[in-house]
Amino acid sequence: LPDYFGKARFTYYRLRTEGHNTLTLDNANQTRDGKAPLAAFHGGEAPLAIFDLTGGYGEKAKIIQRGMRLVDAASVLVQDEVSLNAPGDVTWNFHTGAKIQIDGAQATLTQAGKTLHAKILQPAGAQFETVSANPEKPQAQQPDVTNLIIKLKQTEKAKIIVLFSTAGHSPEVGDIPLADWPRE
């Protein structure tokens, strides 16, 4: 692609932050020198990991953390805690080749005869949306990929909690801050 290793590099979808399964702030890319250290890990019966993403967002972020934990054999919880230095737009991104049906805060993803349910537990009132993940030419096309997103407008502090489950039910998970998740 033109200027792929130059000034245009991070204008290409697959290299932009929005092209990955992470958070974007004000539609901007993460910083090039940002780090995302593993902040906590627990490998017991309910394994989990927490990453400190703050360094990837520069001066915009006070603290941004992402935690993932196995709730049961069929369910995974993804929890993002965001605290910004000033209000900004936060977008949660999840790319998939699955077909998506949305019903407000719930989405059903189907692919190859398998089903995955996604449910927004927080923030209240948040809804799923979809946007194309097929970039403009001359970039390689990916017409079968969709970005399932959650958009929060002008927020300074937020908790985004999404439960993914292969079962038709949603287990009770409670509202546990990442700071209170178990550590080894």
Walk me through what this model shows.
The protein is mainly β. The protein is built from no helices and ten strands. Strands 1, 2, 3, 4, 5, 6, 7, 8, 9 and 10 form a ten-stranded antiparallel beta sheet that branches. The radius of gyration is 17 Å and the shape is globular. The mean pLDDT is 91.
End-to-end Cα distance: 45 Å
Rg on CA atoms, Å: 17 Å
SSE run? EEEEEEEEEE
The stretches of 5 or more residues where confidence is low (pLDDT under 50) are: none
Major sheet attributes: 10 strands, antiparallel
β-strand number: 10
Helix content: under 10%
Classify the secondary structure makeup into a structural class.
Answer: mainly beta
Shape: globular
Give the amount of beta strand, in percent: over 45%
What is the average of the pLDDT values? 91
Number of helices: 0
Describe the structure concisely.
This protein is mainly beta and 184 residues long.
